[in-house]
């Protein structure tokens, strides 16, 4: 009987502790100063970092600390995990959420890093319904079950060249934001800044234009991979928005303004192309 009386208070205590201990640990992690070695890594690997306004750099530091506190990194295929890999990936992922109110990728738990491109078996179903495993080489992959997979050499190429509109970390983490709405459909969770109707109108139109230029073999500022699916379009447009903001604002005004309202930053303030 006494045990029965104890079950409820003990369960409540368990729930309180389960909620309270992680937030206390996070508070402690965020109270620590940002390590000087991490700043040196960012100065070395991410040319956009020293150009960020001081206020945004401070915010980035806190986001990186939270990201590294909450996410689990694993090196595979011989890659030994270290701070350089963790800090570089965390910084680029957190660039996307510098001003977003949605938390630090709450559904994401694991980041798996290969030394280079990795091969994945896709199931290719032909017209007769025959399933044929088809190996494909990938630089990154984003999963809805809380996992991102990246190739470290591509991460470094994308980070150090922040002007070509190609960045695998920005791409895969844009997919993570897209997943937050429950579907990988190119429409992430929107706050009060947009209606889904205007989002669908602006991105849908730009998607069709990219599909047309890709079909006709015409050059476009956005990588033609974005023409393969609306989710890929959002990820590719995100890469261009952060790496080539000036050109995007000139050539795709409405798309630029829509992404600027979503990400709540204007990368033209720290990049001049
Ligand atoms: Zn993609």
UniProtKB/TrEMBL annotation:
GO terms for cellular component: cytosol. CDD domains: Peptidase_M90_mtfA (cd20169). GO terms for molecular function: aminopeptidase activity; metallopeptidase activity. InterPro entries: MetalloPept_cat_dom_sf, MtfA_fam, MtfA_N. This is M90 family metallopeptidase.
């Amino acid at each position: 009987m006494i045990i029965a009386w104890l079950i409820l208070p003990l369960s409540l205590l368990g729930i309180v502790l389960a909620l309270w201990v992680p937030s206390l640990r996070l508070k402690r992690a965020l109270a620590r100063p940002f390590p000087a070695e991490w700043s040196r890594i960012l100065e070395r690997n991410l040319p956009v970092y020293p150009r960020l306004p001081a206020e945004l750099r401070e915010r980035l530091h806190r986001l990186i600390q939270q990201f590294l506190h909450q996410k689990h990194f694993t090196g595979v295929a011989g890659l030994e995990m270290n701070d350089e890999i963790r800090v570089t990936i965390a910084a680029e992922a957190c660039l996307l959420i510098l001003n977003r109110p949605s938390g630090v990728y709450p559904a994401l738990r694991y980041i798996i890093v290969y030394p280079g491109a990795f091969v994945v078996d896709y199931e290719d179903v032909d017209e007769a319904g025959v399933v044929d495993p088809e190996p494909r080489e990938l630089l990154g992959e984003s999963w809805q079950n809380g996992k991102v997979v990246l190739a470290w050499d591509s991460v470094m190429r994308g980070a150090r060249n922040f002007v070509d509109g190609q960045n695998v970390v920005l791409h895969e983490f844009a997919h993570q934001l897209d997943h937050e709405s429950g579907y990988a459909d190119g429409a992430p969770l929107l706050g009060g800044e947009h209606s889904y109707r205007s989002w669908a109108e602006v991105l849908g139109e730009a998607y069709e234009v990219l599909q047309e230029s890709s079909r006709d073999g015409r050059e476009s500022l956005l990588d033609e991979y974005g023409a393969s699916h609306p989710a890929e379009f959002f990820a590719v447009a995100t890469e261009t928005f952060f790496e080539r903001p000036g050109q995007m604002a000139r050539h795709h005004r409405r798309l630029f303004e829509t992404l600027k309202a979503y990400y709540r930053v204007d990368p033209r303030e720290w990049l001049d192309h």
